[in-house]
């Protein structure tokens, strides 16, 4: 019995050796071009913060850097705080979509001077309170903050201890909601969902099953092309009305989203830096690429290719 | 704390019981507990809402600010500090090189090659051969099938990235863990010294130290490996210590009397005799390392975790599940192989059958075949890149999507009713009681319960934990979290008893349920959070359900083992005395497995507690949210760390009380 085993094993080995002889394509045979020809650009370390809009920015910039400039792009999936920390240690060259983050600006741009502002992306960031479209249609007056108390009881949930529930999401984002509720004397309680996934699921469910949900949301965001949430208007933003965090009683400002690069990278003369500096597009552009990624389920690279090929003129302006 | 089952044995079980015995023995323990609860309720009614130490979400205490400043100053001095230049950087270099080396071997393009040194065929062959050599042919087949499946899922490279990281982390962990475990096994003093550190390493939420780690060891392989090592090393340390301690005294004495030196008796007696248990420790370390895959992806560790996280951004449940499934399969393969390896250790010592004679030549032949496969996969493209485009994976993803959608559409009415019943009937009143009572009242109740259940020692530990909890400044959040945790544990125990008894009584049920339990333990929670959110909304209840999915399997397994350990003869005697099945379960099997029940409560609680942070991502708020917020917002870092400490303190408190109670139960 055991002899059979041995024979079998030996046979396998011989078979293996024969296979080696007849082979197939060898590794390194076929012109493995593409790598190697990095040119003067070298390696470009791009942070990818965890939301689809940013993923779209990064996909397009990485695609252009790789194909038009010959850079070796290393994408790093990081949250904002860690990405900024990476400027100092030389592990991150660029962040492509920054939402304010006054604390990080103070720490890394003003304080440690490891990062510098590289101009606006052209995207306008809106933050606010949103309701599902069916609700805005059924009760159009809900879109004025003054009427919110009228409907507060409808927004009650098991979490809101008798008041209306205002759902907040990922703690990464700027929020004044607790202060707003207090200062506008709204009969609401802020409930912290804790993640973007939780927020989106809540809104999706609310639209589908006609449930009452009001929550913190923002645009540009891919989900808005699936369910076009409606923004509730809060007292208009005036410069300085949000300086004292505890006394905020006004809407969020419109954020001009900007790019941040490491100080070293800005001085490196890399063509990738020029690309990042010139990179500029509209909310619609970003939404389009984000839709390819999130809804059509294209890979980042395929989504970027599709957009870049359709928008040659815009891309040319970035790399001229 | 993974199944670091420090069995409640020997120790001074009798000692604490005798001290307060005089007066306390007259009234039974349940009555004392009842009295404590009544006093609590009365005082709560009188003092409600006073001295509750609540702190708003964005508010900080001085301690939190101090931690922030400290963290900032480390970051600012990073490049000039000699500790960084000569210590952390060196460690980072060594580990980074190790990781890069393994990655080039199996997952990442190396040098000028567009593919890794060993392609899929070589890795599959190697996995099969190693599994066969250390285990048996059955697990070898499983390994080959499992690894091939990664390729069919279209996740070959991601799986290999994950495997590379796991291998490095487990290697580094064992390098430290086994010597430390041996030391802790030999010296009681060292063991006592280590235990708090191990508790800390296992219960401190990873989110808390992820950001500082990248500051110390930079973004990349080294940080991910070290984060994994911190979490994964303790089981091996604990189990090795346990194994060394359990080698029978007489054997060691026999060696001593033969004139063996300390070193000889360690190397020739203690280590070989505890090998089998140590391998089980390695098994637990591998499982814990796999649990870190998604977390490590947050600091850019390549692998399956990235797929899970990225799919979550667009709520793509199917894709996330596909990647999660690969993690589950890897866990099952590694688990079965290491279990088989430890069984072989046992087997090899006890028997020498005819087949053993042929083992050596067969292994040799296997090695030759493997070498050929590796050579092929190094040289030829077809054996390097996994062929096909992962259609199996796409199909799994779309089937999952369909199933998830069906569940969401059809069950949400039912689930909402259940959620509201539990929340309003159990969770809300309990949480109000905990958060609205004055802090000193809750503290006093906790200490009193600890003394009654576990004795004076447990009472003192609890008092210390309560004091420290107050000091962290997140007392109120800690109470909210405690309420959810305890409710989740009650549900875990109910499920644990129902399924545990069933599994314990029927081998068939056990065999059918166990793989599901394994999967529930290793599937990254991120995968099932989205469907749960759709079913239950962003609520504390969703967090409780997630905790149950993770915690219940342990309880079920422990209880099943406990039921099975009840002597057959006792059950038979009861049957012949005319007991029906219900009576046998409630009057014989459950009472006789009381220590298993307490152990299950202990492990259930600790597992539930380790899901607090995940709960923070789905609406549980409180400590979990604080930790997540601390990871995301610079200004909240200090508060996040304090919340992490509070979780550790809750864990230690629960652990000591239930362990002490378990010792009493078995005494």
TrEMBL record, chain A:
<dbReference type="Pfam" id="PF04069">
    <property type="entry name" value="OpuAC"/>
</dbReference>
<dbReference type="InterPro" id="IPR007210">
    <property type="entry name" value="ABC_Gly_betaine_transp_sub-bd"/>
</dbReference>
<protein>
    <submittedName>
        <fullName>ABC transporter substrate-binding protein</fullName>
    </submittedName>
</protein>
<feature type="domain" description="ABC-type glycine betaine transport system substrate-binding">
    <location>
        <begin position="45"/>
        <end position="309"/>
    </location>
</feature>
From TrEMBL, chain B:
<feature type="transmembrane region" description="Helical">
    <location>
        <begin position="319"/>
        <end position="341"/>
    </location>
</feature>
<dbReference type="InterPro" id="IPR035906">
    <property type="entry name" value="MetI-like_sf"/>
</dbReference>
<feature type="transmembrane region" description="Helical">
    <location>
        <begin position="525"/>
        <end position="550"/>
    </location>
</feature>
<feature type="transmembrane region" description="Helical">
    <location>
        <begin position="207"/>
        <end position="233"/>
    </location>
</feature>
<keyword id="KW-0813">Transport</keyword>
<feature type="transmembrane region" description="Helical">
    <location>
        <begin position="636"/>
        <end position="654"/>
    </location>
</feature>
<protein>
    <submittedName>
        <fullName>ABC transporter permease subunit</fullName>
    </submittedName>
</protein>
<keyword id="KW-0812">Transmembrane</keyword>
<feature type="transmembrane region" description="Helical">
    <location>
        <begin position="163"/>
        <end position="187"/>
    </location>
</feature>
<dbReference type="InterPro" id="IPR000515">
    <property type="entry name" value="MetI-like"/>
</dbReference>
<keyword id="KW-1003">Cell membrane</keyword>
<feature type="transmembrane region" description="Helical">
    <location>
        <begin position="362"/>
        <end position="383"/>
    </location>
</feature>
<feature type="domain" description="ABC transmembrane type-1">
    <location>
        <begin position="159"/>
        <end position="338"/>
    </location>
</feature>
<feature type="compositionally biased region" description="Basic and acidic residues">
    <location>
        <begin position="1"/>
        <end position="13"/>
    </location>
</feature>
<keyword id="KW-0472">Membrane</keyword>
<feature type="transmembrane region" description="Helical">
    <location>
        <begin position="278"/>
        <end position="299"/>
    </location>
</feature>
<keyword id="KW-1133">Transmembrane helix</keyword>
<feature type="transmembrane region" description="Helical">
    <location>
        <begin position="604"/>
        <end position="624"/>
    </location>
</feature>
<feature type="region of interest" description="Disordered">
    <location>
        <begin position="1"/>
        <end position="20"/>
    </location>
</feature>
<comment type="similarity">
    <text>Belongs to the binding-protein-dependent transport system permease family.</text>
</comment>
<feature type="transmembrane region" description="Helical">
    <location>
        <begin position="439"/>
        <end position="471"/>
    </location>
</feature>
<feature type="transmembrane region" description="Helical">
    <location>
        <begin position="140"/>
        <end position="156"/>
    </location>
</feature>
